């Protein structure tokens, strides 16, 4: 059974047809759907005021090879930044590579010679994330499971699987299509695990989202609470600069990073990079959702203005 072509139902799981990501069909999922729909309605209402006032869009953008649905973060960001999404790339002032997959052997060709965002971001496998992180920060996340001693996190190379599990190293055999990473004790109090979800737009980090999870759900995407926090409160200026350098090395103009701070050594670790970020998190309060997307929209508008003026 398909759901709007993007998902299919498999038992008690909703499975993304393009990526294979699985979402449990629980009462919490139903609440998330309602929350997302309410936010989309709000953004549409705000967008309608632009047409009523007769405002022209600041730019026209086309997405390739497919357009984002309204539950992806870039959709409300475009609406709030007065950037019109068009179907015909010839009508567009710029383009945006948008494909919910983690690996291509080479970047796709842009539809026209106009500027394009995320065009070089075609390999976000976790092994690549770990390599670029090491090159940018100077210390390692990924480990060799055949020689390392102690515990490690084993997880799929693919994006959105949320299948991490702790294993003892050295392992006898390496699981295919998996990476092995250091165990990051990402707690502030030793109990609640916190991911610092870090949206990045043109090298800027308007806000961060603190995604809070219980220990037994630390590798899932089930947040019992999400807080919107000023970037400077969670990341030093040096860390922000290195995160921007990491995004640049990944050719990620717009996306979201999962950043963990290790309680043991105080360092941050980028464990995942997503170029087709969904958002805002459904567990976030409604006013914070709008504030976050407005912050991203301001950064995106500045990036669009710079690209069009070039």
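Sequence proposed for the structure above (310 residues):
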């Amino acid at each position: 059974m398909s759901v709007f072509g993007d998902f299919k139902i498999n038992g008690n799981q909703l499975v993304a047809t393009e990526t294979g990501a699985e979402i449990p069909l629980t009462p919490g999922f139903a609440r998330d759907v309602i929350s997302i729909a309410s936010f989309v309605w709000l953004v549409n209402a705000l967008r309608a005021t632009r047409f009523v006032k007769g405002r022209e869009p600041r730019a026209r953008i086309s997405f390739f090879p497919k357009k984002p649905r309204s539950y992806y973060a870039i959709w409300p960001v475009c609406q709030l930044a007065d950037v019109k999404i068009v179907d015909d790339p010839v009508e567009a002032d710029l383009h945006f590579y948008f494909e919910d997959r983690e690996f291509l052997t080479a970047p796709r060709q842009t539809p026209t010679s106009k500027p394009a965002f995320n065009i070089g971001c075609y390999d976000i496998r976790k092994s690549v994330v770990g390599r670029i992180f090491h090159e940018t920060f100077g210390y390692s996340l990924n480990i060799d499971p055949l020689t390392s001693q102690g515990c490690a996190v084993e997880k799929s190379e693919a994006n959105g699987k949320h299948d991490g599990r702790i294993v003892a190293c050295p392992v006898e055999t390496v699981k295919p299509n998996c990476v092995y990473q250091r165990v990051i004790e990402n707690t502030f109090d030793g109990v609640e695990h916190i991911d610092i979800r870090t949206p990045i737009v043109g090298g800027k980090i308007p806000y961060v989202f603190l995604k809070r999870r219980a220990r037994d759900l630390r590798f899932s995407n089930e947040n019992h609470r999400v807080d919107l926090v000023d970037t400077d409160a969670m990341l030093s200026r040096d860390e922000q600069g290195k995160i921007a350098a990491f995004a640049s090395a990944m050719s990620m103009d717009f996306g979201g990073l999962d950043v963990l701070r290790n309680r043991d050594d105080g360092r941050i670790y980028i464990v995942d990079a997503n170029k087709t970020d969904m958002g805002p998190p459904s567990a976030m309060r409604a006013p914070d959702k709008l504030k976050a997307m407005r912050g991203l929209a301001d950064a995106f508008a500045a990036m669009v203005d710079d690209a069009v003026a070039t």
